[in-house]
Write a structure and sequence with these properties.
Chain lengths: 320, 317, 565
Amino acid sequence: MGKYAIRRTLLFIPTLLVATILVFTLFWIVPGDPALTILAGGEGDSGAVLPEQLQQLRQTLGLDRPIYVQYASWLTNVLRGDLGTSLWYKTPVWNHLKDRFLVTMELAVMAIVLAIGAAVPLGVISAVKQDTGLDYLSRMFSSVGIALPTFWLGILIVYAFATFFEWLPPLGYATLWDDPLLNLQQLILPALTLAFNDLAFTARVTRSSMLEVMREDYLRTARAKGLVEMRVIGRHALKNALLPVLTVSGYQFARLLGGVIIVESIFVVPGMGTLLIDSIIHRDFIVLQAIVLLIAAVVLILNLMVDLSYGVLDPRVRYQ
Amino acid sequence: MMAGRETVVASPILETRTESPARAAPWIAVARFARRKPLGALGGLIVLALVATALLAPLISPYDPRQIIREANNRVPVYVAPGSAYPMGTDHVGRDIVSRIIYGARISLYVGLGAVLIGVTGWFVVGMVSAYAGRLVDLIVQRIVDAMMAVPGLIIVLAIMAVLGSSLNNVIIAIVIGMLAPVVRTVRSQVLSVKEMEYVVAARAIGAGSARIIVRHIMPNCLAIYLILATYYLGFAIILEASLSFLGVGVPPDVPSWGGMLTAAAQGHVTKAPWAGIFPGLAIFIVVLGFNLLGDALRDVLEPRLRGAGPAARLTR
Amino acid sequence: MLAISLLLLMIISGVPAPSAAQTPSPDGQTFIFPWPPDWVARGRYQKMVLRGITGFNPGQWDVHACGTLPDCLMPASPQFNGLVYHNPVNPDEIVCDLCESWTVSRDGKTYTFHLRQAQWHDGQPVIAEDIKFSLDRITEPGAIRVRTGVLRAFYEHQSAQVIDDRTIRVPIKFASPLFLENLASEYMKMYPKHVARNLSPEDAQRPGKLIGSGPWKLKEFKPNISIEYVRNPNYFKKGLPYFDGMIFTIVRDYNRRLAAMQVGQAHTTEGPTIGTYGSEDPMRMQRETKGRVRAIYIPEAVQTYLVFHMNKPPFQDPRVRRAVFLAVDRHELMKIVRCAESFGCFGSVGTFLPNKGGKVVEPPEELAQTKGWRRPKDQDLAEAKALMASAGYANGFKATLNLGNVPLVVRSGEVLAEQLRKGLGIDLTLEPVDRATQVDRIMRGTHHASLDSSGVIILDPADYLNQHYLVSGGQKNPDGWRHPRLTDIIQAQAKELEPVKRLRLLKEAVEILRQGESHMVPLSWGSSGGMMDYRLQNFHVPGSEQIVKHFEHIWWDPEAPLPRN
């Protein structure tokens, strides 16, 4: 398995390269470039920008070089540990990333924890009481979670809190160690919104997994031994049923990062999601590349860990 | 499904067998299905309603969906609440919402079917090829899949839409590309596990060619997987289209897509005219729910043991 | 004769005769602006931080190089002063900011400014050298000056003369009623020479590098989080500003901003007005908070218009352009887009020139009789159909429309498309995109037509002539449409001091444009809106969203009575 881990880790490099080249090329093709957004507005009102002015700015920013030259130059900098300077903010990219990364990770972790925390009991109950009213109810609930678009839920929540409770999380972000209470206040709503969607999938997987395991031979043995059903479930079934839940959640995390983008902008969370949208609007591809690199690396590492843990936790499985 | 043949579906943890349903008259099968899986039947009804609405749109829709209604003395009914004249009210430029919901069924169905037929089918083939062809092909495909899963799908889809421009067909293309990674990955792992099953090994041992193995052993299993994936991704496609509209890169705004209506309502502010957002939101929700319920029930029926751990679990998304 | 023309000059430049002290001198007219004006005494300093929200992330902080309003000018402007500016309590009037008085020579070609006693944030005094430096920096040849480049038309680089530390003589190329109006623009800020000359253009764009003389000092800019200012204790306008500091939280989501105002998390929106808000939502907020949040808006601040791309058929053909010009029902479009049942209309039909600065070039009564605007539209529609037929498009055609994805613009596009489809059989496919893509497509002319918006920059009808018809190529006139007589008129009116003659010139320009063959079809005027807590006092709505952006004159009155709706 060690060999497998090493091989997979080595494969990171081509994957990351492919990912960054992909994004770089895509944004090359997309209309509009940083010079345009600086002079003519990423948004809002703009002046009468002339082609000569654009050309001049492009030269200053080095945007008129061929695409492979720009990519190569970016790559060499990254290999030297320099993520570059933001074309919009004119300050180093790393400064922007380091704080935001933790914020997004905190939000994602909170969402996953909330989701698993609610999904597992839901799934277990659903499996144990299969085909009863309770089962249908919980399956409907998780179906709702899948069918509801995240952004819609987010907007509804903001609207509901503003109109009915007349309370919204205070603006101005506080980190977890500065002011834990404020921090939790600000993250709880977006985390719940994200969790709702993830909850549905996880509950479904838990249910299936439990059903699977509950039919198992060794459980029959336990029942035959005379153990109480609760104990049967709690001690034997649950442990094994949770394994696929954990692995699926690992893959879900990557998907979650996609939802984070929308949720962050609705709830004003200063994480990587808002930075990403920002950099897309401003065509700041230096920042964009750095974000893509970071997220891709995190997802790849996470996937690897999940795959490895899978092999570790279940001795019956060994990948080729 | 061939009657009486035992098809083997494996997960890395457990080797299980499953019987394909015996051949029966279609309506009996449907009735049995409805009785065993009432939720699935509900889902099926919803899907049927969707198809019927889409097909009969010109007959049942009171107005043209893009038409701005002009009443007497040139008054345009902007944001009129639901009432006798307009059962679901009117939208921000004075169009009838009922008509737009009805024609929206066409758009949703078109997008969903298009994405599934092209996407699920296409990536299905890719997944199979990747699993069955040599190491090199597999390696390359896997790297691409990994790369696409690592980059937030949003970026890719946004970029694609920005390049191609907003139109219905481009939305389908964007969704299809967004489906690449999960579908290929799932299909590949399924095929891989089947490939290693004893009877396939045995078949190879006695000299059966690859083609024969694929057709007689692997395909039937994968058919079930295909159906399940298809129903799930129909719902997924519809939601993705709505999200694209929210981000401003969906279908043109006057085209009556439910996602577009939802977005316009969200931007036009939820408090002022809630009906403008509630009805399309409800439509999306019901339809996606229907597809998911149907998919759930199909999966339960076709692959009762296919809920195991590992790669197979990804199927349940 | 001289007295009359200078009096007219005063009227044109918007200075009301009674309020400014004038002294006749052998050289010309002098305008003195003693400090403080009476409103300063009514202001009350509060030991609090003004809380605002904004939807925009500032990029670069050098006002001279700004191309955009909300993400460049608005964050940077509070740190600086101009030489002159629009009177915050009477924004149609131009008064002294850093200057104390100015004298116009008899021929109108030389302005002599006397400076007040002021200091930069680092304590150094503001001297005439700084003014000369700033004027030269603005007009620096080869530098990118999107919004300030217009000064080059009036001022020759390096022609200003420093008479002494507090006096500077500024010659202009020709006598014009518009020089001061342009100089009073918020973009024409004064920088300290001893700081700015050592900064490279890139450095100058970083936050906090350039210092100003203004009411606020930039405390901290946290990208995507907030912009914080702290009060300038040594501001030369003693007693101002009336707060300890300001903090603008950056909230990208529009609905979230509305919600923040609704629950009282912010006192004011950015600007405080900006086109994003329109008028309907602020009015709704005003109603829902029972008056605690006041809606403010600048009527006729931004216009939505259609641009034809003439690099290919069908809009290459002037007959087709004229057909669309005639067929569009501007009233209906304006009603659908800009009117709300419960609040009334916050917009008006589009015109070629803005009626600003007290000059009405296109009065509504006249428009009601004009082709294209008049109703019912039967006649104009018939003529339009005939034009289409003669151009070979009797059954219409398919075309693509490029537009931004801002809701108001999208709505306009939807109505426009429906009208053209119904009236002329033109099937427009709408392609809303983000700003960068939209501008790129306009400049490349990839589509058949585009929808765009223009804000009013200077308070004069000529503003739109300059923006749309003077330049060739670029965002506002991508195919460089020209009419020889129009170009002459534009140049003539800039030099015409006599208001009656000038008005006649402007009307002639409008007549040419109403032939409907230009590259632009005006659609509807909209307002630039915002919201303020009712306890904020002394804000007076200016005529354009590009001016009065410094929050120096606003104070908080905790005992202010809640106004009845």
